[in-house]
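for the writeup, i need someone to sanity check this before i put it in the appendix. the sequnce is what the collaborator sent (i think, or maybe the updated version? ugh). structure was predicted straight from it, no edits. if anything looks off just tell me and ill rerun, i have time this weekend
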Amino acid sequence: MLPEYETEMAAITADPRVAAALDDVLAMDEENERLLIELTEIEAPPFKEEKRAAHYRGLVREAGLDAELDEIGNVVARREGRGGGRTVAVVAHLDTVFPEGTDVTVRREGDKLMAPGIADDTRGLVTMLTIVKLMDRHGLEPQDDVLFVGSVGEEGIGDLRGVKHLFREGGPKIDAFIAIDGTSNTRVLNHAIGSHRYRVRFLGPGGHSWGAFGLGNPAHAMARAIKLFDDRAGEYVTAGAKTTYNIGRIGGGTSVNSIPFENWMEVDMRSMEPGRLGEIDAIFQTAMMEALAEQNELRRDGEELTVDIEMIGDRPSGMVAIDTPLIQRALAATRAVGEEPELSMGSTDSNVPISLGIPATTIGSGGEGFGAHSLHEWWANRDGHLGIQKALLLVLAEAGFEGVN
């Protein structure tokens, strides 16, 4: 860590207003737990974040900012600075990976709060809201504007649509970007992992399993495609920068005694390097077309099978240099709360600004979480205040708060 950022952080933490705000975080534990339960129990399935967004907008307004919903459903609130001219975006995502109808009732087991989505990323929303409150209560006025955003579409096939909308042509000017996601007190993300996601549909006429036997079978074609892709991709990922692939969902068919007219699968590929992501994508595309041709060759009757390959996710990749001021400030903020920072990589809302060359990082919301994306997810308030304190310090430093020694 460069010494000038340690000096900057020391000046910020020594300011009596900041010191009071940091102490206040601990006093807000009970209030924040209540809010965490309240928000977790509002469903926010993919593409259906409206109820949670409306409620969160109300909470931000109660905290003193004029929050609005933008065209795509993000909750957006601007805290104006003292004329510094820059805008620092702080973002936590509203959506979860869980489908509509998932039981999101919070239950307690010891010090754990158990519910799908409670840590990823409902706790992040609470952390961001706490920063809004602390800045207002303690008169923390940095030079630059701070744009607080509850984003939609961070998970799965949401494809980062909320943040992509923020960075659209004609969107708000954003000079630095801080995402709050996950719970680690030590995380400082500076490497965005790119991904390609596809929905593949093998299509045919379909028919009775006995009477129409001999027609091309989409299920057989898809099974062949998976085998070809797994064999070739499995060999490819054994060398070079880490690259992964996954068949996440499979479906189709009408009954056990029917040749299906459609079978589908959803595929995820990721890599640390854009070039390797392109290469494994090419392996995937070739495997799909070869499997189709082979299965058509095997059919005994009827029209040829076809395949539809639809890209449903394209997350860009990139890296932020360690000596970038935002990263240095994140490292300094982590140490200021007594933790040792860890540089990390991941696929988060930060992917978009990083790919555009805008300084961005993702940090944790505090506490301890486990089982993200599972029905057994939980969060526990184990030093949870540290994550909020770190996030507040980072926002203040990046937005140009001038502490008083």
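The chain has a mean pLDDT of 97. The chain has two domains: 3-193+317-398, 194-315.
thx in advance!!
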